[in-house]
Structure formats: structure tokens, C-alpha cells
Design a protein that fits this description.
single chain, 522 residues, alpha+beta, Immunoglobulin-like, Neutral Protease, domain 2, 5-stranded mixed beta sheet, 4-stranded mixed beta sheet, 17 helices, globular
Length: 522
């Protein structure tokens, strides 16, 4: 039996002179911020009732209230409005206003100047993490239960179209024996109540939360405070053992990334369903700029759990570099209703995955033989996909071509490996993709995105000009097969096209040894 009651969300607009100076449209002049109050003590049939209150009237004749069609990191139309029922708008006397549902994600509200509030119900996206539908991205959904709340903000909080850049204030009430783990900026806290702040909707939805009985461990990794928060249906404490397993990896990654991360706080949110079949297990993860949400369905075997979390964390934590620090305007100014895809998933996912494979061999965690075995698996798995397609085309068509999406982690990683070897050869071993990213960071950062169409020219300009620009034209824009045989041979590695095997040459030349050493640091 669920806890009875209602979840109340107060939507408060405040006016200040500071906002008048910052924005210019009539709607922005009329309001200052969204202020929500959420009571997690109140839940009925896995549904939360949401009430939004307006303090000041809007100046428009009508507005459109929205939930996202898509969110960053998930390249599929999720349509989060599907979880919303019984949406109503009313004036200060409680009289209903005219409302029209335009589509699954949008509601048009007439007589906007009279709006005093909006109410609706929110259903959760999953009950227990037991993946059944391959098209379902559970880590982008929420789950509400008396024992835990996994909250992706875009499931609960809507916005008025055109007002996504206003600040958001959250007051979240919860059972006093719970702890709320998140990287969202916390203003104040008291027993049973947290107050959070986000400067805009993009920041808000980038910070998931998990409320449950506390099982948390904190690590200091370079300049970053890392929180590992765990909820397990087994009731078994896990965060300390998982954090201890992750700490050496994260320390090495910070060194690999130059000794400093672009975030002060990072949170791993881990939800573990222990009710899996004995020989069955699965995992789902979604990275954010300063956190990762990981869902596990597997027996309570700490060795298995640590191995799966390690594999996900090793990739996702590196995303603090790309696309947190380096990203295009399409990501920086994400359109939640009609997003425009960037051309550079080969960069965001392909280079991050290549770094995930390169870091262990450069740090001495694995041997060069093991590295070659890992890349061999990628070369073989790549054969399942259409490798004649342009990577920039696939990036732009990521939503429509989900059947090809995983190839960014395969062919994308292999193309970036070839780019690394090319840069090492041109520089006599002194310059690779790590240096390339460091030089890009001198131009761009998390607050200054690059223009999508300029990235190839930017990289060519800061590195080795025409040869690098030709590399992108052939292997990223045009879609020629990655030049594995030609490029690996330069570093004393033989690639067999028939078996896709990578094997180090037993008697390499002096030039091959030098290039391989600069590439793998061995």
C-alpha cells in the first residue's frame, strides 16, 4: 500500500530589478524565478500530485506549458509529457481556465494573465529496474517508492515555453531518515527539508536526485569532492566498498585529464535491484556534467556489482572533459522540444571511449597486449554496423538511426585512435589527442561552446593543418573506413583485415618503437 496524500509543488514567480536588467521580453519582465515545493512524504499509487502557484500574472494572452521531448545524453524521443495526467489551470478564485493539450508534451493555456496555479499528476517511469524493452532508457526516467525516490528533474518539473532560462528554486521535503544525494547546488538544509537552486532549466535537469536511507561515501579526487550514494533492495551497505574500488581509477583519470576537473562536486547515484535471476544481470547509466546515474539489476554479489559500476564509471567520469568542458552550441543551448543534433558525437562519445581504453595502458594498469585485445574486440564488433556512413551524418541522424548508434563507441573510438597516431607521427611523438583537447580548452570551456561547423578547422589550425583537415574529411565527414592497417603499422602493430586482430610486431623498427612508445607511453 502506498503512502496516501499528495505531492505539492508551488510554482512561484518573483520580480526583481536584477532580472529586468538581464532580460528584455515582456514575459521575462513579469517573472523572476520558478519556486517549487515538493513533499516526498506524500505518494499515492506511484503518482505525485503537482500544484504550481503563480504570485504574479503573466503579460501574455496565452502560454504553453511543456515537458521535454528529449534531454541531453539520450538520443531518442522520450516524450516525458506521457507521464502527466489531469493537467488543469485555474485563477485566484479557483475557477478553471481554458486549456488545450497540443501534443503529448505541450499544453496551451488561455487567459494567461489570470493564471494563479496549475495542477497535474505525475506517474513514475519504472517500478523496479528490470529491463524488458530495448527502446526504454530507464536511467532517464524516475521511480517513486516509499523506500526510495530516483528523480530525474525533467519528469517532475515543466516550464513555460520561452522561459527556460529563468532560475529555479526547489524546496524538497522528505522523511527525516532519508538522505538526498545530488550535485545540485544546495542552499540550505534542515531535518526533512532541502533547498536547492539552479540558474536555468538546462542546469536543473542535468542534476538527478536520489532520496533513500543513507548509504554514502565521500572521496576527495584532485579538486573535486566525489559522493558515491547507493540504494539496494537487498538492504546491504555497499557505498564504501564501491567507492574504495573506484578511487584508484578516479585518481588516475584526474591525472590523465591534467590534474584538475571542471567540477567541484561529482555524484555517483547507484540504484541496485537485487531481485535478478541467478545468471542474469544488466546495467543502465546516464552521464551528466557533474553526476552519473547507474541502475543495476543483478544478484547482490559485490564483485559483480563493483565490476559493472567500474566499467560504467570509467567512461562516464571522463565526460567531465567532453562534453562538459568542450561542446557545441547545440548542446550548450539545448532545445528540449525540437533539439538540433550536433555533428560531433564521434567526438563526445568516440573520443571519450578511446580515452577510456587508452588511460589504463598509459597508467600501467593493463599491458599493451591487453590494450590491443580490447581494440580488437571493437574492430570486430564494428563489422555489425554500416561503416560506409559518415560519422557526421550519423551524429546528426542519431535519433533516426538508433540501429547504428553504438558504433560511435566502436568505429568512433578506432577513428580517434588513428587520429592520435597521426598526430604523434606528425609531431615526432610529442603531440596527441590529449594535447589537442588541452589546446581546444584554451579557446573553449563549459561556458563558451564551439560552433558545430568550425570544429574541424579549429583542430587543424591548432595542430598540423592540412593533413589533419584531410583526415577529418576522409574518415569522419566522408565516411571512409578507419585506416587501421596503415596507421597501426606506423606504430609497430599489425592489423589483420580478415580477422580484425591487432598484434604487436615482434621485431619493430626503431621508428615504430619510438612512435608506439609516445602513443602508449610504454
Amino acid at each position: 500500500m502506498k503512502i496516501s496524500g499528495r505531492l505539492i509543488l508551488y510554482f512561484l514567480f518573483l520580480c526583481t530589478a536584477e532580472v529586468f536588467a538581464a532580460v528584455s521580453t515582456p514575459a521575462f519582465r513579469a517573472v523572476q524565478s520558478y519556486q517549487y515545493t515538493v513533499d516526498l512524504n506524500e505518494l499515492y499509487n506511484d503518482r505525485l500530485t503537482v500544484n504550481l502557484r503563480f504570485r504574479y500574472p503573466l503579460e501574455q494572452k496565452k502560454v504553453v506549458f511543456c515537458f521535454p521531448k528529449m534531454v541531453p545524453g539520450i538520443y531518442a524521443e522520450m516524450n516525458f509529457g506521457k507521464h502527466i495526467d489531469s493537467l488543469q489551470a485555474f485563477d485566484k478564485n479557483g475557477a478553471p481556465l481554458r486549456i488545450k493539450r497540443l501534443n503529448v508534451n505541450e499544453w496551451e493555456i488561455s487567459e494567461a494573465a489570470r493564471i494563479a496555479g496549475i495542477s497535474y499528476q505525475v506517474d513514475d517511469g519504472w517500478e523496479a529496474f528490470i529491463p524488458r524493452n530495448s527502446g526504454m532508457y530507464y536511467s532517464a526516467e524516475s521511480s517513486f517508492d516509499p523506500d526510495f525516490f530516483v528523480i530525474n528533474q525533467h519528469n517532475l518539473f515543466g516550464f513555460i515555453k520561452g522561459l527556460e532560462r529563468l532560475p529555479f528554486h526547489l524546496e524538497i521535503r522528505y522523511p527525516e531518515y532519508f538522505y538526498g544525494a545530488t550535485s545540485l547546488r544546495k542552499l540550505t538544509e534542515s531535518p526533512g527539508t532541502d533547498h536547492f537552486y539552479a540558474p536555468d532549466y538546462r542546469t536543473l535537469v542535468d542534476q538527478p536526485l536520489m532520496y533513500c536511507r543513507p548509504d554514502t561515501t565521500f572521496l576527495d579526487i584532485g579538486n573535486t569532492r566525489v559522493c558515491v550514494a547507493v540504494y539496494s533492495t537487498s538492504g546491504q551497505p555497499m557505498s564504501g566498498l564501491i567507492a574504495g574500488h573506484l578511487e584508484p581509477l578516479l585518481q588516475k583519470q584526474v591525472i590523465f585529464l591534467g590534474g584538475r576537473l571542471p567540477v567541484d562536486n561529482y555524484t555517483f547515484l547507484l540504484h541496485h535491484n537485487a531481485q535478478a535471476a541467478p545468471d542474469s544481470y544488466s546495467a543502465d547509466g546516464l552521464e551528466h556534467n557533474s553526476s552519473t546515474l547507474i541502475l543495476l539489476n543483478m544478484r547482490p554479489d559485490l564483485h559483480l556489482i563493483r565490476a559493472n559500476v567500474y566499467g560504467i564509471a570509467s567512461h562516464e567520469f571522463l565526460h567531465t572533459l567532453i562534453p562538459l568542458a568542450l561542446h557545441s552550441e547545440q548542446i550548450h543551448n539545448f532545445n528540449f522540444m525540437e533539439p538540433e543534433m550536433s555533428r560531433h558525437l564521434w567526438f563526445y562519445e568516440g573520443l571519450t571511449e578511446y580515452f577510456t581504453q587508452l588511460l589504463p595502458v598509459r597508467s600501467g594498469t593493463i599491458s599493451s597486449y591487453e590494450f590491443m585485445e580490447n581494440m580488437t574486440r571493437k574492430a570486430r564488433d564494428m563489422q555489425q554496423y554500416d561503416n560506409t556512413l559518415s560519422l557526421t551524418y550519423l551524429s546528426r541522424m542519431a535519433v533516426q538511426r538508433q540501429d547504428q548508434y553504438y558504433n560511435f563507441y566502436l568505429r568512433g573510438a578506432l577513428v580517434n585512435m588513428c587520429l592520435d597516431i597521426q598526430l604523434r607521427e606528425l609531431s615526432g611523438g610529442s603531440y596527441g589527442v590529449q594535447n589537442m583537447v588541452a589546446d581546444l580548452l584554451k579557446i573553449y570551456n563549459k561556458d563558451t561552446p564551439f560552433r558545430d561547423k568550425d570544429l574541424f578547422d579549429d583542430i587543424a589550425r591548432i595542430s598540423y593543418g592540412k593533413p589533419i583537415r584531410q583526415f577529418f574529411k576522409k574518415y569522419v565527414e566522408r565516411g571512409d573506413p578507419p585506416p587501421l592497417e596503415e596507421y597501426l603499422l606506423k606504430a609497430g602493430v599489425r592489423y589483420q583485415p580478415l580477422t580484425q586482430a591487432l598484434q604487436e610486431i615482434s621485431e619493430p623498427s626503431e621508428a615504430q618503437v619510438k612512435l608506439r612508445k609516445s602513443w602508449l607511453n610504454q
